[in-house]
Amino acid sequence: MQGKGKAIAGVGIALFIFIIYRVTSSPTIGWVDSGVIATAANILGVPNPPGFPLYMLIGHLFTKLPIGSIVTRLQILSHVSSLVTLALVFALVRHMVKLSKQATWIALFASLVLAFSYNFWSQAINVETYAATNAVLFAILCAGLWLGPKLVRQAGKMKMRDIGIVLGLSLAGGVSLGLNPVISALGAPGIWWLVRYRKIVAANRWVFVAGFALALVGAVAIYSYLPIRAAAKPFLNWGDPVNWERIQTHLVGAGLNIYEPETSSINGFTGQPKIWWESFWHYWELALWQFTPFLFPLVIVGAIALFRKHKDIFWPLILVVLVNLTYVVLYYGGNQESWMITSWVVMAVFLGAGLDKIFNFQFSIFKHRRFKDGLVIGVGLVPMIFWFPVLNHSKYVFADEYAVNMYKDVADGAVVIGGGDMFHSLTNYTHEVTGVRDDIISVTGNMFYIFPWYRDHLRKHTDLVVSDKVEDIINMKNVNEFTWAIDQLIADNPEKQFYITPLLLRDTVVAGTMEGNYHTEKYKLLPHGLLYKIVSIDSAEVPNEKLWQFTFKYPELMDNKPPFYLERNYKNAYKLLRNDYAYGHSILAEYYLQAGDKAKAEIYFQKAAALGASGNPQFFNRLAIFYAQQGQGDQAKLFFEKALAAAPENPDLKSNYETFMADVASKTPKSQKQELFEGKKLIFFYPPTWIVTEGEFGDVTAVADDSVFTIEFRLKERSGGTPDEFLKTQTQTYGELVNEGPAKFPNVDQAYARLWQTQGVKRFEFFLFQGDAVFQVLVGPMDSAKMADFDQIMSTLDAK
Length: 800
Fold this sequence. Notes:
By secondary structure, the protein is of the alpha+beta class. It folds into five domains: 1-30 and 65-128 and 278-393, no CATH class; 133-223, no CATH class; 395-552, no CATH class; 559-667, Tetratricopeptide repeat domain (Serine Threonine Protein Phosphatase 5, Tetratricopeptide repeat, Alpha Horseshoe), CATH 1.25.40; 670-799, 3-Layer(aba) Sandwich (Protein Transport Mog1p, Chain A). Helix 4 packs parallel to helix 7, helix 5 packs antiparallel against helix 17 (341-360) and helix 14 (273-309) runs parallel beside helix 17. The longest helix is centred in the middle third of the chain and has 37 residues, at 273-309. The chain starts with a helix and ends with a strand. TPR repeats lie at residues 617-650.
């Protein structure tokens, strides 16, 4: 393939990758900061630290594309950025193995494997800063790798074009600091370059001094975005960095470093070797996932080969990996897996070098060019086939669905106070990008309490009254201050209808503390779908059950099998979203339970348990407690065991289960063990006030303390045959047969029930099949209140 043909093929492959990225992209924002990034890029706002000013400017240009939604346009920025990175990998690998007859195919292989590796693909379809950051990082790095040898060939003499390139790269390096902090990985190879070509640097020192100055100018210029845009007071203005003190705070993310494992608050530089070690192994675990255990050895082979043949390429690349790994290990964050993409790009280059090394072995099978070409393309596309079902996010409309369900029947101009990254990201996105319910004022609770600038922001951009009384309350000295401040905000705005998210009632408002949630005594919290509606204490308003008819465009995505994510933060974000829906049902169940409507309470507790995220035992636990309180011991035991199966080491669950079993034992402290015929045993528990006797023929009768309700146990002889055949032999009657059919009991293989009636009194007859034994159980009368005790007794039954 020559010239024009290669160019057409290259464009075709790039278009193919672009189409795959496009069709697997979500129609809306993703998890964590995606909504904040989209909002800030759309309005030239100031997002969370460090602000990403260069991405904001580039992203804003892409929001002007005449195609699709704002999210689609920013996703296209990620697509294009990823294609730039892939093109650079292709060019670098092809340069390294240019002596190979399969140089083009090897370079294509490395690019394809990277294109469809999990993390690279995940961010190529996301609204985030990582794809653009890596494109710029590797563009500057490759330019440096090209420039050094070129200057050596010119004996260190720099032409005007070379000077322009040095100055341009220096300026680009400074400006690039306005992307994601992972761009800092350029620092180590930059220092290596200056040392490696120190003679050229010394001979042209003023050029490099000017370059250093330009880098500083570029960094200062790009970060001047923060005070300039903050002064304009955009709707999203995190930290309001209008002065030097606030700019410093914003750049370093002051206050975001925390290590409080007891509250699950871990972020930033923790100073904890345990966290460093976990991050180190997590890095290598994900490295294997990106390239698979089958291909990862090629990465190692390629790194060794590159070290031996191309040290001037090896050292800058390995330094990028080492700096990136150090960053990942020392700094713990929610987007940790996405930071690692920088390393995966380098490893893709090593992968190409490793494949070239393997092809150089004189295996007879490798002498067939078509075989090698087919192998390269086939294996290169394996990651695409493997990850496509997982990374096809075309139906992932979780954010838009959540917004519709949360805002359902919320009053015009209302105030919704919430907490967590999802709430902050989503409400900014809906207000400034989609315009969904932009009449609603959203308040992020923890930011309202912690940051004075955030309260000023509300005063500037909304008609909320945030009085001096609120400022007087907030002194960071009392865990009740948050509740008092929110109550005061409500009192300051009597004409506004307020809502809060349930998260504020169960999570702390200050990370690293065990307290500080919302627990008002001034207002009543009325369940309102995914929210609580704040009403007066004496309000007689009742919930509208239609609010719990949540809308899901793709209901199958809300089953108990969660989407697959390698990113821990994305897993947690999905879990929190599922739990929000579950809590919505749970709080309605609590409302009905307090109102005395146990039937509806049970329905909504069950729905909460069904909607709760997989592995979250709290909704099973609550349903178990409900059943225990209703005297339904078998159901309580079932759901306690489900909760413990999901979290066997959870101390609260273990305590609840032990308390429940102790309560059962206190009501039934004795165990009656009967050894009937040929060593068969029947074990069960019964209340201490009951009387249990053994008959002449080994039958056991349990009589309740009312002397009326009885349970009779008998061991029946069975000489082979199926249960159906055995039942045909049981012709004894106990009155009129009303009904019969299969039944369910714990700890037995099979059960069958018959309902008898004599003179208006109904009794059950059960046959319990366990191995080659059959136990007959007669119980009644059925209308007795003691049937609840029967359920508990049978839940402890053990037939052997």
